[in-house]
Amino acid sequence: MRVLIILCLFILTSCDETKKEADKTPPKLVLTKVNFSDLPNWGSDDFEGFSAAFLHSCKRILKNPANAAFGVLKQAGTYGDWQIICNKFSEHIISSPQTLYKFFEDNFTPYQISSDNKPVGLFTGYYEASLKGSRTKNPPYIYPLYSRPDDLIMVQLGDFRDHLKGERIAGRVINGRLKPYEARADIVSGNWAHNDKVLLWVDGAVDAFFVQIQGSGLVQMDDGSKMRIGYAGQNGHPYYAIGRELIKMDALNKDEISMQSIRAWLEANPARADEVMNSNKSYVFFREITGDGPIGAEGIALTAQRSLAIDRTLISYGLPLWVDIKHPINGEPDIRRLMIAQDTGGAIRGAVRGDVFWGHGSSAENNAGLMKSKGQYWALLPKTDIDN
Questions:
Q1: Beta strands in the chain, from DSSP E residues, in sequence order
Q2: Which of 5, 172, 182, 352 has the fewest C-beta atoms under 10 angstroms from its C-beta?
């Protein structure tokens, strides 16, 4: 589950929560009812891969109590409202984009999402990382990725206070009190109690760092097999963007910050790479995944260019979102298509803030690494009697 860690390493507004930031009043999510004709290029999406992605969310939706609220967005109604829609969707054989457009126009109403009436926000990207690894430590496979330790306690604060939905902390219980867990520097140096919890060994410290940023990876093992790994937990320390650290060091400038430039600097400066990577105290633990993947925070397999990570304190999982986002590659057409809120991340904060899942492979990695685009989106909410 790719929670708390996403590709914000090149964004200056990092996940580091200072007191000054905490004291600010967060922008409010504002919904403005519009028509489908107001959505940029509505009618242009070929919906490739969308039906499968939506049905993944529907499997989860159908398991929830019908009278329960559909996540944090109160305007989204109840799970019962969405179960009706999911049943209708699964009963239809969606054979053409035109059929899908009619389905959404008949069953949904679009709403522009704004942050304090500002509709444009930041959109980044992430991908499923590629690695080389081994189940045993043998050169060059000497860098561990750890499975989740048994004493790691992760607390969903929303279970205790409604206004804290989507927030959580993590640590270890000592003498009946929850205490902070070891930071990244302690874990990677072996200065903690669970050096025996290695899931696998990989051949590069930088690769081990970047797969934690992405939260998922496909590992080519030294025995010829492949292992898919996914998020299993996090040590509870706030994520800090190392791109921000490199700018402070005058190692890179703001305009050239990207995943690619950060990786290049780390690999060219091995003597300082650990220091820079450890400035981010967050550490992610992994598990082996069988079957489809990677798995998002909604608990379902993600779909390339259809799954979107959102701020889960404001947006409900399973919500269809029509997006209008600048493509990270100059000259490519803007991204105008239907996506689904199926994941989250520690740097995804705000009403208009998203992280596009690009999939697996070199093209996905390139697009994700370069993406820091302006964009906007619209929520599709079930029609009510007022809408009809």
A1: 29-33, 108-115, 121-134, 143-146, 153-156, 168-174, 177-179, 198-202, 216-221, 226-234, 284-289, 307-309, 320-325, 335-343, 353-360, 372-382
A2: 172
CB 257 within 8 A of CB 243: yes
Q: Are 270 and 282 in contact (CB under 8 A)?
A: no
Residue 326 corresponds to which tokens in the numbers above?
């600048």
Look at residues 199, 180, 175, 198 and name the one whose alpha carbon lies nearest to residue 238: 180
Q: Cα–Cα distance between 157 and 219 in angstroms, integer?
A: 33
pLDDT tens profile 152-166: 999 988 888 888 876
pLDDT digits (tens, 9 = 90+) for 216-264: 999 999 999 999 999 999 999 988 989 999 999 999 998 889 999 999 9
Where along the chain do its domains lie? Answer: 22-123+304-382, 132-289
Determine the topology of domain 22-123+304-382 in CATH: Barwin-like endoglucanases (2.40.40)
Whether the bond into 140 is cis, omega within 30 of 0: yes
Distances (CA, A) of 97 to 51, 94, 295: 10, 8, 27
Helix, strand or coil, per DSSP, at residue 210: helix
**DSSP string over 10-61:** T-SS-S---HHHHHSPPPPEEEEE--GGGSTTTT----TTHHHHHHHHHHHH
Identity at 198, one-letter amino acid code: V
- Could you please state the CATH topology (level 3) that the domain comprising 132-289 is classified under: Ribosomal Protein L25; Chain P (2.40.240)
